[in-house]
Amino acid sequence: MKGMKMKVKYIVLAILLAVQYSCSEWMELLPPGGLIREEFWKTKEDVNAVLMGAYESFASMDGTLFQFGEMRADMLTDDINLGGTQRNIMEGNIYPENGMSNWSGFYRIINYTNEVIKNAPLVQEIDDTYTDYQLKSVMSEAYFLRSLAYFYLVRIFKDVPLVLEPTESDDSEVYFPKTDGDMVLDSMILDLEQNRQFAPTEYNTLEEYRGRATKAAYDALIADIALWKFDYEKVIKHVEYIEANEEYEIMPNDLWFDIFYPGNSLEGIFEFQFDMANGQQNSVYGMTQRLSYSYDPSQKALQMFAPEYGAAELIRGQNSSIAKYGEDDFIVWKYVGREPDGISVRTGIEQTSANWIVYRLADVLLMKAEALSQLERYTEALNILNEIRERADVPPLTLPNSKIAFEDAIMEERALELAFEGKRWFDLLRMGRRNNFARKADLIEVIIQNVPSTQKRILATKLTNPLGWYMPIQESELEHNPALVQNPYYKF
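Below the sequence we write its predicted structure tokens.
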């Protein structure tokens, strides 16, 4: 979807071919070649094919999700082979022509889901075998993926066009202006709450159960959006729904690395699936394996995980979250290793098969702890925090009854537990926004850490404007869509 210019009476297959690979055998549903729209939407299999296109397209963005969740935070540093596009973002040199300001990948997913939401009920009128249960289940998955895509968009760009219909007419050119980010998320919360009851609870395989939108996945996403919007009671409510589900358990400490290899652990709630044996390859292996020389653990990460820097993390530390190859030569290990030994790398068909974990139980429990602490329910928050620390075999914390003390401790624990999982930047951004930007200076200090020393003071001053915490709209989008207005921070 280029330039937000909605003009399509497109061939459905053309969209599906834009997807580079499948994410599991249950996603290998493709329509026959050459079908135009009027010939395509006939059976429930046609609907499933487009839904799988949405899953596939989202999975193909794992590298993008990794970078947006980590680049501007404090857990990664650049290496010699990192491209200029990413390096400029890490150094605060962000301009509308930067290639990563292109949001088309997210809108491709949204268009898939809009297709399903609009056409699935029409297909049921044609296909007598399409039951109400099947229809509502498929549509619930589409609503989930659309909401997740918009949640990423709002956290990355702030205000974005809200498009709720598929692009399917040549008759006119329709231009969508930006919608306030909070309004976008309010719309997504409404969709999620209305469709959660229809989310499937049973699938045929473990890959489907962890890789498709279940009620638990719904609850995790609702809780995450609610936390972003500081609706703490809603966070607690939906995390408790997950806690009540016996299908999910915190992995024991000796099996912590099983979360990443082989993946789909008891702790996993929603993971984009990869299997190199079936041509389903992730991107994060290539970004983090030793010879890529793209992203390395930062000094902060080394202080958290490396024994020689004083770290005491035995379960989540060196050989698990990171690995050491030589003097000051460390890499991210979660997507490269097959054992928590810092030596045994993934080889052969396992190499690019690590799932991208969107939500897991430790993540949502820490969301709940954050919400509880902001409601001054400190004892309950501390119990969760220390439950996660006990699993990691590190000493429990004793904290003063202070929102800031708990916020700092929970942010640190999330950094330790969820390192390099695409969470850190969004966590810090949430902290910087809370309580009318009360901790703005703390976030700015993180953002400027990778900036050349001669530019730190200037950039720190500019970033007192919170609009600088979000990405600009790419120049090409503005050229194609006259209804769009650039983020004012980037109007030079």
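Residues 1-35 have pLDDT under 50 and may be disordered.
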